[in-house]
Backbone:
């Protein structure tokens, strides 16, 4: 494989993978696994397609802000493309989509403007349009933009047929959100493999296409009203509360042979089974599309070749019903396994601290003792934390002080600052000799030892820590209503 010029070269060319256990034996069922795109979903294709089309047409100037309404995957794809090409990105998204999506986009440098869930897809689309008009930003218009469908005609469609090397493709199964995948691939297949049957899935409780009720569009192609058949459904990324122009185009062209309703539980079950029985880790709409593909496979003639789109990765759904039954704590079975051998159990007493962890007072050098004494008695810095740089308990104390604006000095004993001649270890020996306590963190206020994490938190809860700070005229936010115990590492909470 040749070196890529940038991450953008890795978009597309996703693998087509044979299903070995979850398909009936009389057919060949393959999945197109779009999680292999760098942003983890099919929408990376659209992001690259729309941005490069706008660049070619002069609609997007260097450094101009890009804005779009998205259920998340388009935003993540755009964030990848915009990060690489240097465009600032603003995404509008209904608050009801999974929180990991917001964080992913922000991690990639985008800004995310949330819109009320009650206003559904049309609300976030309107917000994006307003922002674009108010600020002169480039609006992607993924639901109407032809570049969305074009990229699928240029990449997804040809990739599928090339993988078959001239063998016939009998069925292609997909869901629809913007309809870009459906319009683009169906157009390509209608020209290059006209006998392929195009199957489009939708949620059974939000059956916009099978309702037969037409969608009204504005002159610019955007949806004029919410579709009357829309209901909240599980398949984030599928079926917004309107039929997009791109989807309507595919219907008008008569490319769709069959619309399949999919039940939410079927989608969850197949996403889980794909993971456990095929090692294919994908999201809810992938499970839903696969449920449709299995239904087609069950009724297809022997020897049929079927391709099913799997739009994204399962990691995007940790906070959703897909992971609801997945325990963070050990299950009874796992507890049984833990108890089946003697070591490292939670139901046996912890081992005694090893002798080597004990350090002797006499070991500290004069320089370390002086440093230690000067630090804890520094008149200008009353609060001192002796810490380890990446220790979560030390962070918990620092978070408490930061949230209450309590000024403090942190001596990070294992940091590079104190590495020469193990001065950090040396200071720690002086500290241990002084307090008789070997664990870190250790907190001092005006030379007085408060304790470790628990003692400091208890002093805060009791208000005594605040009293000593006030007596010393240390300024901080006295109104901070925090329970410091909530700042402890999450894994500490019951198993
Ligand atoms: N599944 C998921 C998870 C999606 O994010 C999307 C796109 N919104 C789709 C399916 C549908 O793809 P398209 O927009 O091309 O119709």
Residues:
């Amino acid at each position: 494989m040749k070196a890529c010029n940038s991450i953008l070269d890795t978009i597309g060319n996703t693998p087509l993978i044979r299903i070995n256990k979850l398909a009936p034996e009389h057919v060949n069922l393959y999945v197109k696994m779009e999680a292999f795109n760098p942003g983890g979903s099919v929408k990376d294709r659209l992001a690259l397609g729309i941005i490069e089309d706008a660049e070619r047409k002069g609609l997007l100037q260097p450094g101009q802000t890009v804005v779009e309404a998205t259920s998340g995957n388009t935003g993540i794809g755009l964030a990848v493309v915009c990060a690489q090409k240097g465009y600032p990105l603003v995404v509008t998204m209904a608050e009801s989509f999974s929180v990991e999506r917001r964080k992913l986009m922000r991690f990639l440098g985008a800004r995310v403007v949330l819109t009320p869930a009650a206003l559904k897809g049309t609300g976030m689309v309107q917000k994006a349009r307003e922002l674009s008009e108010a600020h002169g930003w480039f609006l992607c218009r993924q639901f109407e933009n032809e570049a969305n469908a074009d990229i699928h005609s240029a990449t997804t469609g040809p990739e599928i047929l090339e993988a078959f090397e001239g063998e016939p493709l009998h069925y292609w199964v997909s869901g629809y959100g913007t309809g870009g995948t459906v319009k683009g691939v169906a157009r390509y297949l209608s020209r290059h493999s006209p006998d392929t049957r195009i199957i489009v899935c939708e949620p059974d409780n939000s059956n916009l296409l099978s309702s037969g009720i037409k969608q009204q569009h504005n002159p610019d192609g955007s949806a004029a009203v919410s579709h009357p058949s829309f209901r909240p459904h599980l398949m984030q990324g599928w079926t917004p509360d309107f039929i997009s122009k791109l989807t309507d185009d595919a219907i008008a062209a008569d490319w769709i042979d069959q619309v399949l309703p999919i039940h939410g539980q079927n989608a969850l079950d197949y996403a889980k089974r794909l993971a456990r029985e095929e090692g294919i880790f994908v999201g809810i709409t992938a499970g839903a599309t696969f449920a449709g593909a299995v239904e087609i496979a069950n009724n297809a003639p022997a020897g049929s070749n079927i391709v099913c789109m799997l739009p994204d990765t399962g990691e995007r759904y940790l906070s959703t019903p897909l992971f609801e039954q997945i325990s963070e704590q050990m299950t009874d079975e796992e507890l049984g396994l833990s108890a089946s051998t003697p070591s490292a159990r939670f139901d046996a007493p912890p081992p005694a601290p090893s002798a080597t962890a004990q350090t002797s007072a006499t070991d500290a050098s004069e320089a370390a003792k002086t440093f230690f004494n000067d630090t804890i008695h520094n008149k200008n810095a009353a609060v001192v934390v002796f810490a380890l740089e990446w220790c979560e308990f030390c962070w918990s104390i620092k978070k408490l002080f930061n949230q209450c604006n309590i000024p403090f000095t942190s001596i990070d004993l294992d940091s590079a600052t104190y590495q020469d001649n193990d001065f950090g270890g040396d200071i720690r020996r002086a500290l241990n000799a002084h307090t008789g306590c070997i664990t870190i963190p250790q907190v001092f206020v005006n030379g007085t030892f408060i304790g470790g994490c628990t003692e400091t938190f208890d002093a805060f809860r009791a208000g005594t820590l605040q009293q000593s700070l006030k007596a010393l005229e240390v300024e901080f936010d006295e109104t901070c209503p925090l329970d410091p115990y909530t700042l402890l590492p999450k894994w500490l909470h019951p198993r």
The pocket of 4'-deoxy-4'-aminopyridoxal-5'-phosphate is lined by residues 41-43, 71, 73, 175-182, 237-238, 283, 285, 311-312 (CB under 6 Å). Residues 271 and 422 are 52 Å apart (CA to CA). The two ends are 45 Å apart (CA to CA). The chain has three domains: 7-40+146-213+236-323, 43-139, 355-492.
